[in-house]
Design brief:
The structure is a single chain. By secondary structure, this protein is of the alpha+beta class. It has one domain: Alpha-D-Glucose-1,6-Bisphosphate, Chain A, domain 4 (2-Layer Sandwich). It is built from 4 helices and 7 strands, in the order H-E-H-E-E-H-E-E-E-H-E. Strands 1, 2, 3, 4, 5, 6 and 7 form a 7-stranded antiparallel beta sheet that branches. A hairpin with a 7-residue loop joins strand 5 and strand 6.
Length: about 140
């Protein structure tokens, strides 16, 4: 264990789903859009502030969500990654969220948040690679 800790880079930021950028992170959002092109994926941009990549999920997860969140089987749940940019006094803050969107037969969809340390680490590394400071 001591060897593993000693070999771990010390400049890796703590996992975060938010980051601060000095300027508008166009490259980050362009990359996000390009990467959202797989089978069953759909990219959507709302204005120039909110970006979403949604995708169909495996059958087992779909069934679990429909059964546990009273979903509507004729409109399947999706996994959604949303990135939002907000201008502030220091530049731009980017916030990411991941959730399952479970349509209901009546009423609004249910958003089930997804917690993932692996995702948080990947987002931190992405933010840093794109010139941001994870917060």
């Amino acid at each position: 264990m001591a060897l593993f800790v000693a070999c771990t880079p010390q400049d890796v930021p703590p996992p975060a789903r938010s980051a601060q950028f000095d300027t508008y992170p166009k490259r980050l959002f362009d990359t996000f859009e390009i990467e959202c092109d797989g089978p069953g994926e759909r990219f959507e941009k709302t204005g120039n502030r909110v970006f979403e990549c949604s995708e169909l999920i495996p059958p087992e997860t779909t069934a679990f969500l429909i059964l546990n969140y009273d979903g509507y089987p004729q409109d399947l749940p999706k996994s959604v990654m949303r990135m939002t940019s907000t201008q502030n006094s220091r530049g731009y803050r980017v916030d990411a969220e991941l959730y399952f969107d479970v349509p209901q037969k009546n009423g609004p969809t249910v958003r089930v948040p997804v917690e993932s340390k692996t995702l948080d680490k990947a987002l931190s590394a992405l933010y840093q690679a794109m010139g941001g400071s994870p917060t």
